[in-house]
């Protein structure tokens, strides 16, 4: 009697019930497959980090006495899909039962259901024991109406008793310190170094290349600076808590050419592949506040991201799939400019955010939302293409978290399920939050005009976007200010702005 248990690459949760006691009648199977490397073109560092973390996890399981069958990308007997490999390994070991954890992605759940049906064995599906909210409950709660994140987050604080006072209210008297969390970073305090030292994964990279996997971005295989084990992930968490958390909230919305992460944690990859549990990350932040090392506003700002946003978007994803994947409420169909894949644009903000993403597989939230996402939104790019770009380029990109952030929060393609208004901004926003505009070929102050320093494309595109979608947004109270400002603008100024936008939209590739 052998039970075959499948462990996916983003299920590296050493604390899972499965791994408590080694069992002679259980064979764990892990596999690196082309069906996963090829459904979208991933960043080279994502493939490297995932495979390295999976291999380290398999080795740790074996060391602890578990039985593991591991299929490497280049193995000659690797049949390169979940279904084919499962059938092969089940036959090899004479499996009498198949078990798996819930997959986080809708696509993978379907693939595994099909694979399990083809195996024809009795099967069991168990939770991944990672998230703080129950998936089925969330999907049911969000099926008809999705609450605003803020209310979901308050509920999560209460349910999990996090940052509450003795009466069950929020410590500090308020739930939200966002108003204190919007500073531009002047360069001081210095931003901490990248949390991880490099791994030499050159041999693994050779295997990936030899297998013919196509990737984007720079591999940096000789010095890959992402955590590939729980020990490294824990060390990164400790460094974040000590050096960055004290300023996390204050500079949460800041962007700079002088630092990649600023005071962000860089923990999303470790969290999403489950090397870290969200509760331990939250507890570490709260403990730092309790010890007086971090102000409440900075601690709460960080907790909100994990207890609030991360759990919330997962709920939206599972409540709204599969329809969510094709939502296009703003009817956007323009192709994403080719320079999204090279960084070759004269717009300094986009050039920097894209070049950094290609180089590291990372950009922090405001770079994703207000630079790359904002441009695609203003230009009316097709959310399918925007989704594919985000799903490929970031080391932490898994559909359950990428898609609601991209289609929902950033592109408003879900018609307002996640965001109560579109995250659209012009050069004034970028200039306020970053040092990008200083080195730009465009003039952030101008709405139109090509003589001298040409007008920043974001300015005219911003107004064009608002006008294109006036019927949808003009009555939204959160959008009242810009529509009033537009109404007050001189007719000649309005006409010049819109014709500038039309000229830019005609030649997006050349911007
Ligand atoms: C267009 C777009 C696409 C995104 N795609 C992804 C993605 O594919 N994978 C991903 O993990 N995050 C995604 N995010 C959310 C967020 O940008 C990243 O989680 C964050 O930048 C990761 O960097 P960090 O670990 O330094 O985060 P920090 O700023 O240090 O935040 C701490 C943690 O909170 C969580 N978190 C923060 N914001 C969000 C959010 N909006 N949704 C869910 N979790 C959040 C992450 O786990 C993160 O590690 C996306 C955001 C946008 C706007
Ligand atoms: S001027 Fe415009 S394009 Fe240039 S960096 Fe500023 S916002 Fe970006």
What does it look like?
The protein is built from 20 helices and 5 strands. A 5-stranded parallel β-sheet has the order 3-2-1-4-5, sandwiched between helices. By secondary structure, it is mainly alpha-helical. Helix content is 47%, strand content 5%. The mean pLDDT is 96. It has 3 domains: 3-126, 3-Layer(aba) Sandwich (Rossmann fold), CATH 3.40.50; 135-212 and 227-320, Alpha Horseshoe (Serine Threonine Protein Phosphatase 5, Tetratricopeptide repeat); 338-510, DNA Cyclobutane Dipyrimidine Photolyase, subunit A, domain 3. Flavin-adenine dinucleotide is lined by residues 261, 264-268, 271-272, 305-306, 309-310, 313, 364-365, 368-369, 373, 390, 394, 396-397, 401-402, 405-406, 409-410. Keywords: Lyase.
Number of helices: 20
- Roughly what percent helix? 40-55%
Number of domains: 3
Number of strands: 5
């Amino acid at each position: 009697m052998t039970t075959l248990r499948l462990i996916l690459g983003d299920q590296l949760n050493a604390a899972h019930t499965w791994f408590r006691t080694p069992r002679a009648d259980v064979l764990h199977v892990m596999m690196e497959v082309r069906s996963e490397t090829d459904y979208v073109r991933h960043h080279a560092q994502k493939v490297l980090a995932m495979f390295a973390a999976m291999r380290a996890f398999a080795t740790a399981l074996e060391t602890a006495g578990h039985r593991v069958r591991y299929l490497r990308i280049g193995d000659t007997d690797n049949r390169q899909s979940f279904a084919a490999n499962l059938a092969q390994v089940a036959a090899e070991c004479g499996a009498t039962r198949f078990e798996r954890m819930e997959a986080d992605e809708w696509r993978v759940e379907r693939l595994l259901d099909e694979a399990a049906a083809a195996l024809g064995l009795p099967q069991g599906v168990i939770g991944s024991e990672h998230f703080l909210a129950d998936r089925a409950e969330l999907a049911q709660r969000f099926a008809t109406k999705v609450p605003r994140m803020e209310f979901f987050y308050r509920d999560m604080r209460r349910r999990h008793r996090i940052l509450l006072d003795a009466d069950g209210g929020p410590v500090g008297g308020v739930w939200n310190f966002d108003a204190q969390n919007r500073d531009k970073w002047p360069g001081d305090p210095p931003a901490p170094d990248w949390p991880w030292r490099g791994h030499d994964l050159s041999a693994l990279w050779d295997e990936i290349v030899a297998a013919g996997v196509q990737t984007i971005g720079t591999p940096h295989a000789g010095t890959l600076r992402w955590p590939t084990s729980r020990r490294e992930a824990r060390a990164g968490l400790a460094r974040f808590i000590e050096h960055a958390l004290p300023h996390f909230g204050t500079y949460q919305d800041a962007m700079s050419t002088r630092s990649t992460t600023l005071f962000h944690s860089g923990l999303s990859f470790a969290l999403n592949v489950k090397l870290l549990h969200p509760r331990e990350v939250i507890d570490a932040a709260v403990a730092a506040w309790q010890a007086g090392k971090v102000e409440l506003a900075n601690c709460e700002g960080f907790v909100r991201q994990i207890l609030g946003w991360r759990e919330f978007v997962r709920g939206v994803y599972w409540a709204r799939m599969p329809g969510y994947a094709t939502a296009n409420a703003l009817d956007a169909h323009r192709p994403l400019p080719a320079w999204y894949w090279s960084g070759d644009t004269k717009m300094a903000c986009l050039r920097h955010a894209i070049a950094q993403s290609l180089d590291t597989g990372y950009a922090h939230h405001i770079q994703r939302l207000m630079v790359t996402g904002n441009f695609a939104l203003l230009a009316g790019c097709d959310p399918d293409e925007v989704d594919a770009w985000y799903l490929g380029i970031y080391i932490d990109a898994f559909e359950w978290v990428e898609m609601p952030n991209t289609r929902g929060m950033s592109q408003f393609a879900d018609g307002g399920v996640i965001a109560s208004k579109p995250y659209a901004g012009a050069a004034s926003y970028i200039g306020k939050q970053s040092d990008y505009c200083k080195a730009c070929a465009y003039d952030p102050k101008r709405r139109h005009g090509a003589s001298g320093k040409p007008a920043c494309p974001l300015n005219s595109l911003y107004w064009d976007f608002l006008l294109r979608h006036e019927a949808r947004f003009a009555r939204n109270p959160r959008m009242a200010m810009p529509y009033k400002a537009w109404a007050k603008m001189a007719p000649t100024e309005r006409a010049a702005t819109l014709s500038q936008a039309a000229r830019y939209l005609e030649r997006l590739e050349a911007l």
